[in-house]
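*** Protein under study ***
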Amino acid sequence: MGSATAATTPLVQPRALALKNWLSPSLCDMFFLAVIAWSFMTSTTGWSRLLWDGDTAIHIATGNWILDHGKIPTADPFSFTQPGAPWIPYEWGTEVLFAQLNHAFGLKGIVFVCGVAIAGLIVILLRTMMTAGADVLLSIVTALFASNALLIHYHAARTYSRCSS
């Protein structure tokens, strides 16, 4: 075995280069901001579109009930026509989150978190396509079309509800 001299690269980057790479925004970082601008800042309705669903108030009320009582209700505590009817709040995790956000920041907190979650979902779609080897430009266009197609479903009450059950 001969001792061949090979150019080796250090396994650890110099501190300045690592900091520069960490602070430089990636394509997905910029796309995240673009989706927020595209979805919420360019339209006349803006962020308020996330409150078009009337269920946001009942989600906050249910979250408040859970926080006040320390348990998930098994009977509907809000019904006038069927008081005490069996009820399972499948979205209890979202409802607790909404109640806490509403208490801390008001409706603006709920809207902000839901807007960030929606933009995050679109970025995950973009990253998934790019990781699978799709063309970057085609991936961006597809993610923007998906975001535009989903605009009608952007409601604060729907953003987390399917994930919390």
